[in-house]
Amino acid sequence: MAKWLYPDLFEDLDPEAFHQEYLTEYQRLDYDLSEHGVFVYPPLD
After folding, report:
1. Which domain holds residue 23?
2. Is 23 a member of any domain?
């Protein structure tokens, strides 16, 4: 959320990389974000 709210302040963050690590390492899911996309709730319009 920091990247969405303050993109200039957090230019060096890669939310997709953090999300992929969370799914792979901690949830033990075989889900490729680059193939299926990133999901958030509520959806951003």
Report:
1. 2-36
2. yes
